[in-house]
Amino acid sequence: MARAWCLTSRPQGLPTQDNFALKAIDDRALAEGEIRVRNLWLSVDPYMRGRMNDIKSYVPPFEIDAPMTGGALGEVIESRNGGFAVGDRVLHMGGWRDEAIVDAGLTPVKLPQSDLPVESWLHIMGLTGATAWIGLLKIAQAKAGDRVFVSAAAGAVGSVAVQIAKAKGMTVIGSAGGPDKCAWVKQLGADAMIDYRAGPVLDQLRAATRDVGGRIDVYFDNVGGDHLDAALAMSTKDARFAICGMIDGYNSDTPLTLKFANLIIINRIRIAGFLYSDHMADLPAFQADMGEMIKARQVVSHETVYDGLERTPEAFLGLFSGANMGKMLVRL
């Protein structure tokens, strides 16, 4: 009997284990066009917090007492779809469970032959790597010589954004929580680091920009809040901001306020939010470019792994306490 995590109640603030329940899900015969997948790896991501609220957004909310969904990677064990054979490895959105019946709505994609570890397709060769590449190079139009500030630089997307920026000849300032994470991101190539737990972000960013010879040209935002405000304060004229996420506010009802919003006009800052799903046409270019950077060891993968379906909520909640370096994954 397959099992899946369900959302049993809508969280108020930071979710707890009490908001989730692991339930058996009924088996059934496959319909035409479906495949049955035994999941090997599950992805947990900050955007899933928004899906726990019953509000209109760019992705529908999770239904109460229904299996949750999310990125997953698995092996086909039964198929009624001519495009997939038993034994194929696939990416799909039937996560938070050990076995999934996958139809077109869960967007199955057969993995190509590759020497990379299979879990890389949930990270540097998948959604998180593409998000970093699209945000930095397409949305912010970052280029060699730019000074780039990346918040949550030890996270899944941020750590890849740092490495891409360095591979493309940029100067990088990162932010992370704690000396160990800051030291790790420096090993990835960051020129300067901010430990947001050690003091005000703006004061540290002001000092870091002096160390790299000027204000920031590009901001890759994963945090929002005081990081976004500090980036505005330390921006140069015609700076470009790519807004990927705002994890600082995902568990809060307090509206975002910015002390330095006037600088958007003064410095002619271009601020653009973006979603990975709006840029599917860019994936072939991303995969080719990322493949070359991986071969050259300019980008390396790092995952924080929790073992067992039972630990999926624990892994998800760890995203909000800084438990991960790099991509957070669950291995089944």
How would you characterize the overall build of this protein?
The model has no long low-confidence stretch (mean pLDDT 95). This protein has 8 helices and 15 strands. The two termini are 15 Å apart. The strands form 3 sheets. Strands 3, 4, 5, 6, 7, 14 and 15 form a 7-stranded mixed sheet that branches. Helix 6 (263-266) links the parallel strand 12 (235-243) and strand 13 (270-273). The protein is an alpha/beta fold and 332 residues long. It has 2 domains: 3-123 and 302-331, Quinone Oxidoreductase, Chain A, domain 1 (Alpha-Beta Complex); 127-277, NAD(P)-binding Rossmann-like Domain (Rossmann fold, 3-Layer(aba) Sandwich), CATH 3.40.50.
CATH level-3 fold name of the largest domain: Quinone Oxidoreductase, Chain A, domain 1
Main sheet?
A: 7 strands, mixed
Sum up the overall morphology in one term: globular
Number of strands: 15
Q: How does the helix and strand content classify structurally?
A: alpha/beta
Instruction: Classify the helix fraction into a percent range.
Output: 10-25%
Specify the number of helices. 8
Mean of all residue-level pLDDT scores: 95
β-strand amount: 15-25%
